[in-house]
Write a structure and sequence with these properties.
Elements: E1 2-9, H1 12-24, E2 32-35, H2 50-53, H3 56-81, H4 88-112, H5 123-127, E3 131-138, H6 142-152, E4 157-162
Antiparallel strand pairs: 1-3, 1-4, 2-3
Helix pairs in contact: 3-4
Keywords: Membrane, Transmembrane, Transmembrane helix
Organism: Roseateles agri
Protein name: DUF1269 domain-containing protein
Length: 169
C-alpha cells in the first residue's frame, strides 16, 4: 500500500533538483509526478499524466456502479415482458453488464476532462508558477522521503499526505 506525499516547489530549478535527489534515493521515476500550470516548462521532470490530474478513475468507478444498477433495473422490468421467451436472469445479467460498460465509458469521458478534486487546493499555487510534486511511496519510506526533502529543500512546502493511492495510476 502506497501513500501520496504532496510538496510545492517554487520553481523549475528546485523541481529538477528534487527529481534528481529522489531518483538518487531510489524512488522509481514512475512514482514521482509533477504538475504545474498549463504551458509551464516541465523539462527534466516526470510530468503527471491524466490519471493523476483528472477525476478519470473516480468517474469510471461511479459510472460502473450506476450503469450496472440502471441496466439491472431495466433488465428486471424487461424480464417480466420476456418471461415466456428468454430466461429472466439472463436478461437481467446481460443488461446489467451492458449498463456497466456504457456507464463506465460515458463517465470516464466526462472524468478525463474534469480537473482532479484532490488537486483543486493547489490550483492557485500552480497558477502562480509553483510546481506540485506528488511522490507515491510505501508507508515504510514516508519519514525518510520527508526528511530528505526537508533537509535539502527548505524553500519547498510540505502539503500533506493522501491516505489512499489507487494501485494503477
Amino acid at each position: 500500500m502506497r501513500k501520496r506525499i504532496y510538496w510545492l516547489l517554487p520553481d523549475l530549478g528546485s523541481a529538477q533538483r528534487t527529481m534528481n535527489e529522489l531518483l538518487l534515493a531510489r524512488v522509481s521515476e514512475r512514482h514521482i509526478h509533477f504538475a504545474a500550470a498549463d504551458g509551464a516548462d516541465m523539462s527534466g521532470l516526470h510530468a503527471a499524466n491524466i490519471l493523476q490530474t483528472s477525476d478519470l478513475v473516480e468517474s469510471a468507478q461511479t459510472g460502473l456502479l450506476i450503469g450496472a444498477g440502471v441496466g439491472a433495473a431495466g433488465g428486471v422490468a424487461g424480464a417480466y415482458e420476456l418471461a415466456s421467451t428468454a430466461a429472466p436472469a439472463a436478461v437481467v445479467i446481460a443488461l446489467a453488464g451492458l449498463g456497466a460498460v456504457l456507464g463506465t465509458w460515458a463517465s470516464s469521458m466526462i472524468g478525463s476532462s474534469t480537473p482532479s478534486r484532490r488537486l483543486r487546493r493547489f490550483q492557485q499555487a500552480m497558477a502562480e508558477g509553483q510546481y506540485l510534486l506528488m511522490v507515491d511511496t510505501p508507508r515504510s519510506r514516508i519519514e525518510e522521503i520527508e526528511a530528505l526533502l526537508e533537509a535539502t529543500h527548505p524553500e519547498a512546502h510540505f502539503e500533506g499526505l493522501e491516505p489512499h493511492v489507487p494501485a494503477f495510476p
